[in-house]
Each structure stands twice: as C-alpha cells, then as structure tokens.
Amino acid sequence: MSYQLTDSFGRIINNMRISVTDRCNFRCQYCMPEEGMVWMKKNELLTFEEIERTVQIVARLGVSKIRLTGGEPLMRKELPLLVQKIARIPEVHDIALTTNGYFLTEQAVDLYNAGLKRITVSMDSLDASKFAEVTRRDYFDNVWTGLDLLQTLPIGPIKINVVLMRGVNEDEIEKFAGLARTRPFIIRFIEYMPIGAGDGWDYSKVVPTREIIARIEEHFPKLVPVEYHGAQPADRFRFEDGKGELGFISSVSEPFCSHCNRIRITSDGKLRTCLFSLHETDLKSMLRSGESDESISRAIVAAVWKKEEGHLINQPGFVKPQRTMSQIGG
C-alpha cells in the first residue's frame, strides 16, 4: 500500500489513541456523572485481534505511535496480552498508556515486560481529601503506591496529567510544580474542556496556561523551554535545578489543532479524527463483515483527509459531542 495519512490541511498523522474500554472505577467530575452510566456490552468492544489488525493497517499507513486509553484501560482483562501483540508490529515504535493509576501495583511489571514504553497517570490533586472530591473515590494512596512502583521500572518518562478547574484545584499549581523539581515526573497541566456529562463546563472555570506559568514563575526560577508548539500537544518546560519537567496543554486558550498529528479509535471501533468530532467512521463493522485490509485502509485515508481544521470551543458554532470522554477515549 502506498497511502499516507495526510489531511486536507497538510498535517501528517502518525499517532493513534485506542480506547480499550469505556468502563472506569473513578467518577471524575469533568468526565462522567456519579451515577447512571450505562456500559457497553463485551461484544460491542473491539477484540484484541481486531485491535491488532487495525494497528497493523494504520502502521502501514505511517502510524508509529500507539496510546491505549479508556475509560480505565487497566479494567480490560489481560491488557498486557494486547500490548504484546502491538509490540510485535515492526512499524510501531512507541506504545504508551493513560491510566488513573489504581491498578498499577498489580499490572505495571507485566505491562513493561509485554513491551509498554511509557505511562501517563491522571492525578488532579496532591491532597487526599480533594482527590476524593474530584474523583468521587477515596483512592489517593492506591495511585501514589502505583507511582512509586513505576519509578523502580525502566518505563519513562512518567507523566502526570492534572486537569485544572478554577475553584477546585487551581490552588495546587505550585505544589505540582514543586513535585516536578523533586521527582523525575513530567507534570502536565491540562485546561478544563467541555467533554464530560453534566460537568457544568463554563469558560470561567478554565485556568489558562499563561496564568499557570505566571504563578509558577512567581515562586520558582524561570522556566526553560524544552519544546514549544511542537508535534506534541504539550508545550514543555524544565527548571534549571529540577529533576522533572512541566507541560502545558492549552486546548482551550491556545489550541494546538494546527499541528495535531493524532486520530482516535473508540472502544466500540469508531474512528474519530478529533476529540470533538461530530462524525465517526465505523471500522468495527468493516472488520466484522470481512472487508479487506485495502478497503479498510481506503476508508481510514478518506476519513483522515476530512479531519477537522480544529475544534470551536468557546466559539460560535461549537457543538458538544454526544459522547463523553470515557466513551470516546481519553
């Protein structure tokens, strides 16, 4: 096959996020309601073999980076087996995972042995009581134990995602920045986005990146740029005297859409070209109806060509996706 995943704006797609489940044992305020979630049935999810085949197809189209997400991906049984299958695909050079960290003590070693390269842990507070408030679960110690274990493994870098919400946890900006000076973590501050169910999103709750950086530089030495407006969604900085890094994902105040290089597969096999897409391509139906790799490749190429120029958050014409973050894949 001679295709390349390029959209109509000249962006080359080499990064794919794959959701393996919509289930989660947390109930984070910005992601899903506390009660009433209806989960997909097992037969609605892509099987490991279907995911493997999809990765083989997109790998031949130039995708070399795969990130497994959820829901909470570690709730999918035997996930290391899937990692092992993907790791055997020659064109894939990087396999990463985004997790809430709860199951890391049980699975981190097996995931590493299967071929996992990097892990990102979502953790929105360094205070146990506030952590429980945001996640609606009292699992703070479980997550920290998992982070401690990760530091003993040759997996890295270890990223910690922090969704900042004004009036909830923006008072911890300096604490998280201090953590990046004392531990080898990449702390990534993510602006609050309108993607949850009943999350009450309002722009006034967004803590813009410029404000975050200004507050950090009031208390610490000036940040040194590592990567700014590059291929990754986060602008990266380090401290001259620190062990880790800081990253800033400015999805709302300074969108990185113009250099986006990623697509998404939902756990039920739908291709989405943007987190905020209003359209999906049903790959699962093609996989299960006997379509050839060539036919599926053409469908993927056609969908990517129509990739949105960017989202319209806080602009006229913005329409919130019907699916929540846990249903799309974080």
- Corresponding CATH superfamily: Aldolase class I
Beta-strand proportion: 15-25%
Shape: globular
Taking all Cα atoms into account, the compactness measure Rg is 19 Å
Structural class by SSE content: alpha/beta
CATH architecture designation: Alpha-Beta Barrel
Task: Outline the biggest β-sheet.
Answer: 12 strands, mixed
**Uncertain stretches of 5 or more adjacent residues:** none
- Beta-strand segment tally: 12
Percentage of residues assigned to helices: 25-40%
Mean pLDDT: 92
Query: What is the spatial order of strands in the main beta sheet?
Result: 7-8-9-6-5-4-3-2-1-10-11-12
End-to-end Cα distance: 30 Å
CATH class: Alpha Beta
User: SSE string, helix = H, strand = E?
Assistant: EHEHEHEHHEHEHEEEEEEHHH
**CATH fold descriptor:** TIM Barrel
Quick summary:
With 330 residues, the chain is of the alpha/beta class.
Task: Characterize the structure shown.
This protein has a single domain, classed as TIM Barrel, CATH 3.20.20.70. It is 29% helix and 17% strand. It contains 10 helices and 12 strands. A 12-stranded mixed sheet has the order 7-8-9-6-5-4-3-2-1-10-11-12. Helix 1 (48-59) runs parallel beside helix 2, helix 2 (79-87) packs parallel to helix 3 (104-114) and helix 3 runs parallel beside helix 5. The longest helix is centred in the last third of the chain and has 13 residues, at 293-305.
